[in-house]
Design goal:
alpha/beta
Amino acid sequence: MPEEKTGPKGVIPPAERIAASAIARLNSETPIIWLVSGPSSESRNYIANEIAKYFQKSALVDGEAISKYVLAGRILPGEEPNIESERQIELSIRNQCLLARSFSEAGFVSIINYAILTHYHLDAYRHYLSGGNLHLAIIPSSELKFVDLNSLLEKELHGIGYWIENIRIGSSIAKLIESEESIL
């Protein structure tokens, strides 16, 4: 039988204790992960923060901030070369999901805030977060500068997730969280 590793005065080292706790939690609980999408970062930030406040233990993953971790050679969504732009979007999605899984394993509800505008990108989240209880809230924007992105969103994700047309505080957040429409 392998000898149990202990620290000073019989204390189990934190890394081993955390790993054991995460494994036990994964075996007993399905992680809850929210995806909050829409073209306007202001609207997404508001809803993502309201969802996070609803839960006792929550963690917010800012997808836009993660996408900015690439400094040299960064290609923005929609810029050329398109293949590199898509590769960097997928890299950002993968890292968002890794971080969300890490928080979920520690017992937090994870909320990912990112502009998921295509079915292809949504499928990437579904793949990287498989096994989790995924929810999607979509916030189209009424701002004129987002007309094209709203059209893309409607075309790509129509009928998927919970669509929030009017942003209101309080009961609408509870309604969103309790709604089965949000479940993917």
